[in-house]
Write a sequence for this structure.
């Protein structure tokens, strides 16, 4: 089973093949089904097949921890900002405190345009963010950018 490190090895060649996307394990955390579907569709166009969805931050935290305990950790999280039960910022903060989850890159998906909020998320450890509404092509660009940043 390929993991994020193997994807990074491919990226080091100067390009990222679709097979590398195919092996990514991604969790989408958003309380709106339409946003989850939009992100899932974009990922499927990149041939990503290992996609899990969570409906809020608490559900996302539970799923991320379960995957780690099952030996199937996640390579990347797309996470909404404003959700019930646990916000995306709270989920990000919890993950960064947990050594088994701290290395997972987060892309915050938000309608927030306040630069202070975006900076707070980046300071907490978010790898990047996407402002809603976004183009499907933005997903691929964000993944490529994150792979380059972490490689």
């Amino acid at each position: 089973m390929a993991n994020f490190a193997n994807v990074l090895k491919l990226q080091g060649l100067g390009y990222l093949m679709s097979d590398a996307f195919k092996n990514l394990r991604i969790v989408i955390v958003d309380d709106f089904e339409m946003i989850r579907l939009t992100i899932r569709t974009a990922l499927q166009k990149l041939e990503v097949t290992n996609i899990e969805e969570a409906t809020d931050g608490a559900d996302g935290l539970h799923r991320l921890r379960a995957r780690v305990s099952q030996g199937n950790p996640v390579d990347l999280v797309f996470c909404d900002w404003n959700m019930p039960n646990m916000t995306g910022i709270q989920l990000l903060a919890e993950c960064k405190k947990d050594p088994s989850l701290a290395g997972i890159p987060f892309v915050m998906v938000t309608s927030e345009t306040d630069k202070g909020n975006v900076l707070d998320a980046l300071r907490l450890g978010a790898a990047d963010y996407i402002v809603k509404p976004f183009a499907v092509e933005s997903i691929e660009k964000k993944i490529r950018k994150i792979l380059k940043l972490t490689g």
